[in-house]
Amino acid sequence: MDLADKNTKEDRKEKQQQHNEDEKRLIEKKKKLGGLKTMPFILANETCDRVAVTGFHANMITYLTQKLNMPLVQASNTLTNFSGTASLTPLIGALIADSFAGRFWTILVSSLIYELGLVSITISAVLPSLHPPPCPTQLNCKKASSFQLWVLYISLLLTSLGTGGIRPCVVTFAADQIDMGKSSLASRKWNFFNWYYFCMGMATLIALTVVVYIQDNVGWGWGLGIPTIAMALSIIAFILGSHLYKKLKPGGSPLVRLAQVTVAAVKKRKEKLPEDATLLYQNREMDAHISVHGRLLHTDQFKWFDKAAIVREAEAEGSTPPNLWRLATVHRVEELKAIIRMLPIWAASILIVTSSSHIGSFTILQARSMDRRLSSSFQIPPASLSIFSNLTMLTGLILYERFFVPFARRFTGNPSGITCLQRMGIGFVVNILATMVSSFVEMKRKAVAARHGLLDNPKAIIPISVFWLVPQYCIHGIAEVFMNVGHLEFLYDQSPESMRSTAAALYWIAIAIGNYIGTLLVTLVHKYTGEKRNWLPNRNLNRGRLEYYYWLVSGIQMVNLVYYLICAWLYTYKPLEEVCENVEEEDKGSCNAREPELPRKESG
Questions:
Q1: Could you report the per-residue pLDDT of 118-155, keeping only the tens digit for each?
Q2: SS3 of residue 296 by DSSP
Q3: What are phi and psi of 422, to 5 degrees?
Q4: Which letter, b or e, does each residue of 135-151 get, where b requires 16 or more Cβ atoms within 10 Å of its Cβ?
Q5: Judging by DSSP bridges, how do beta strands 462-465 and 370-371 pair with one another?
Q6: Is the dihedral of CA 542, 548, 550, 551 positive or negative?
Q7: Are 166 and 111 in contact (CB under 8 A)?
Q8: Which of 559, 576, 570 lies closest to 603, judged by CA?
Q9: Helix, strand or coil for residue 70?
Q10: Going by fewer Cβ within 10 Å, which terminus of the chain is more open, N or C?
Q11: Can you tell me whether residue 313 is helix, strand or coil?
Q12: What's this model's pTM, rounded to 2 decimal places?
């Protein structure tokens, strides 16, 4: 009997040793995944992707009107409709990634769908049977047939669907490869989001110069073929690094979890909350797959939702997993609270997009009426002025990373120099300055036109250099350095880890809503400012009051800034019990037990 017991104990010991060795091997394998070695593959993928996307969309209005002979209004509406679709599909793609597919497979499949759309529209540009005959005079042109239009619509639909999976997942997937914990950030001298946005800016610059030039001067076969090749290269680069990536498992539908917490809180609305928050329901094992980098800790905000985590007697006695529609863990309740806290900050970013939406329309009309000559034979294309904004943004990101962050770190002690909310706040202020400068430049442009008697000649070239418009482009570029990057970082850092793709989708939805509000604002201003001295006239901008529109937008932004400062002041950062990944087995306990950062309020 003693011998049998001894053998049993030895078997258990061997099994335990084997289990420990297997776990150590798993930890070692996880250590080898992710890290900086994955960045060349991911950033190469995103750079090629951005060249493809920007090169495809930047000049599409010219393709539709000159290659497919579409009327201007129909072409504009077509692009608006599919642009709106492409702005909404990221939410669908993010939910798919966070729910069951994971970010890696969502990016890969979406890239293939986008590539299919590019291939089809490139073929339609090359094959004569898939587009109408050329019409150099643009008079009495033969319109595209129904079949040719269907090829176009299917191509644009495929690119819109592909965009939905790429946009929300790439930045979050790339950030997943790097330890974004506070201890790691403190020891690192660079910010991932700065360099991510820098790569995107470089890709956009290449597309706006090289690709657009080829489309205008070489032909649409190569003009669309290059974005198609760039997208194919991005897919290859992404696949080549697949064995190095850290692929987090999806945590199930985030919307379902949020709904479960809400329903559970409603069902227990009459229950009294315990004075001791530690009595609320917690289950590490159940939350393990949605809290890989640490559990969210209890906060006192929105305490009504805590009722979802109240444990009743019947629920305490049961040994089976709880019904999540009746009982939620503290971590899941805090996920809902985190999303609710983020929404007011996110909403403030919408009007920033609205204020910048005029760059692609009114500023180009101003530029067409100004002296654009660089030499006797070369003029700057009006649409190319956006290059100044792009160059300023790229330069600003380098200066921010190399000089501003080390300088600010001396005073704040923050590894990032300033918090993402403070960074966004600076962006709000700079954006207001850009709009005010736009107003002064318009007043100067019209004063010169009046001095030379050109106010009633909408097609006249006013003797004022187009470079007067450059300062506002440059200031908008500076605003991007602070606002856009800070917004991306905020959405990633403050969202629950299992909902980060969904949070990134909010970034693109804010852009879509901001543009729609910009269109609505222009429509209302045009409708209600009269016919004689309309602020935004249809034909003659010289007789308009564009500077008044800019002052109106500046005033709206100032109100929005006050709203943002209040939201930022009241905002509580999510409290996280971080888990260190790169530790030995015997040190795991001490890492998990580390005192978490206390929630704090932030001033803008």
A1: 999 899 888 888 888 887 766 677 888 888 889 888 98
A2: strand
A3: -65, -40
A4: eeeeeebeebeeebeeb
A5: parallel
A6: positive
A7: yes
A8: 570
A9: coil
A10: N
A11: helix
A12: 0.78
For residue 392 the two structure tokens come to 């300023």
Q: Residue 59 half-sphere exposure, CB side, CA atoms within 13 Å?
A: 27
Read off the pLDDT of residues 263-278 as tens digits, 9 standing for 90 and up: 999 998 888 888 888 8
Share of the chain above pLDDT 70, in %: 85
Choose among 324, 245, 331: nearest CA to 288. Answer: 331
List residues bridging with 370 in a β-sheet: 462
What is the number of other CB atoms lying within 10 angstroms of the CB of residue 488?
22
Rounded Cα distance between 538 and 550, Å, is 17
In this structure, the dihedral spanned by the alpha carbons of residues 141, 144, 146 and 148, taken in order and rounded to 10 degrees, is 160
Q: Give the separation between CA 308 and CA 497, rounded to whole angstroms.
A: 21
CA 289 to chain centre: 25
Which residues, in sequence order, are CB contacts of 513 under 8 Å at separation 6+? Answer: 350, 353
Q: How far is CA 421 from the centre of its chain?
A: 16
pLDDT for the residue 79 = 73
The answer to whether 176 touches 246, Cβ cutoff 8 Å, is yes
Residue 344: how many other CB atoms lie within 10 Å: 15
For residues 179 and 581, is the Cβ–Cβ distance under 8 A?
yes
**The pLDDT of residue 507:** 84
- Per the CB < 8 A criterion, the answer to whether 58 and 213 are in contact is no
Sign of CA dihedral 230, 43, 355, 379: negative
Q: Are the CB atoms for 165 and 97 separated by under 8 Å?
A: yes
Q: Which amino acid is at 333?
A: V
Three-state DSSP at 371 gives strand
Alpha carbon 226 to its chain's center: 25
Q: Which residue has the tokens 């250099």?
A: 465
Question: What pLDDT does 138 receive?
Answer: 60
Q: How far is CA 420 from CA 314, 351, 492, in A?
A: 45, 18, 11
Q: Looking at 519-567, which runs of residues are DSSP E strands?
A: none
Return the DSSP state at 543. G
Tally of CB atoms within 10 A around 281: 22
Instruction: Kindly state the DSSP code that residue 253 receives in the 8-state scheme.
Output: -
Q: How many CA atoms lie within 13 A of 336 on its CB side?
A: 25
pLDDT recorded at residue 436: 93
Handedness of CA 345, 170, 397, 407 (dihedral sign): positive
CA–CA gap between residue 251 and residue 534 (Å, rounded) = 54
